[in-house]
Amino acid sequence: MKRFVVVNGPNLDLLGQREPEIYGTRSLADLARAVRKKAKQLGAEVVLFQSNDEGAIIDFLHETAPGSAGIVINPAALAHYSLALYDCLVALDVPVVEVHLSNIHAREEFRAKSVTARAARGVIAGLGFRGYELALEYLAGL
Ligand code: DQA
Questions:
Q1: Which of 42, 45, 56, 77 could be joined to 51 by an S-S link, Cβ 3.0–4.6 Å?
Q2: Ligand 1 centre and the CA of 4: distance in Å?
Q3: pTM of the entire structure?
Q4: Is the CB of 15 within 6 Å of ligand 1?
Q5: Is 31 in the pocket of ligand 1 (CB under 6 A)?
Q6: Which of 28, 51, 57, 74 for mutating ligand 1's site (highest number of atoms within 8 Å of CB)?
Q7: How far is the CA of 2 from the centre of ligand 1 (A)?
Q8: Which residues are catalytic?
Q9: For 15-41, how does the pLDDT look when each residue is reduced to its tens digit (9 = 90+)?
Q10: What is the sign of the dihedral through the CA atoms of 131, 99, 30 and 59?
């Protein structure tokens, strides 16, 4: 059975409460449900992780991603500056899809640049929860 790793970065634990006009009113638990449902439909296993700590995310990926069929990651603000996370994603040699709930190209200028995106096969931004589902569908088809 294929195993996918789905990671959410800093402040995504506040989904549903945080700027709902941008990120929606559904919570991280709702997102986890949607991701698990999609993985089940695809006949795959999924491991989910969220942390506000860059190092914890990197440690989690080191431990969990090797041997997996793909990583779906919303690095949140880490996308805009974390070269350590970029290096981690490159080092793992597992296909990566980067997801952003909001359209980072239609917001503040600093959000348009993602340093981690270079490590990804593709980036989905602005499609909300659907982005995670589409990323899983893509990875399942590899
Ligand atoms: C985000 C966009 C980032 O710019 C921001 O820092 C986030 C969430 C998104 O999902 O739209 O925390 O990654």
A1: 56
A2: 21
A3: 0.98
A4: no
A5: no
A6: 74
A7: 27
A8: 23, 100
A9: 999 999 999 999 999 999 999 999 999
A10: positive
Angle between helices 28-41 and 129-140 (to 10 degrees): 30
pLDDT of residue 3: 98
Nearest Cα residue to atom 2 of ligand 1: 76
Per residue in 104-126, pLDDT tens?
999 999 999 999 999 999 999 99
Read off the DSSP letter of residue 11: T
Going by C-alpha positions, the residue among 134, 96, 132 that lies closest to residue 116 is 96
Q: What number of residues does the chain have?
A: 142
CA 129/CA 140 separation, integer angstroms: 17
Q: What tokens does 99 get?
A: 């997801």
Instruction: Determine if ligand 1 sits within 6 Å of the CB of residue 28.
Output: no
Query: What is the tally of helices (H) and strands (E) in the chain?
Result: 5, 5
Contact 75, 116 (CB under 8 A): yes
Is the torsion defined by CA of 23, 48, 120, 42 positive or negative?
Answer: negative
Say how far apart CA 23 and CA 34 lie, in whole Å. 15
- Ligand 1 atom with the shortest distance to the CA of 74: 13
CB of 64 within 6 A of ligand 1: the answer is no
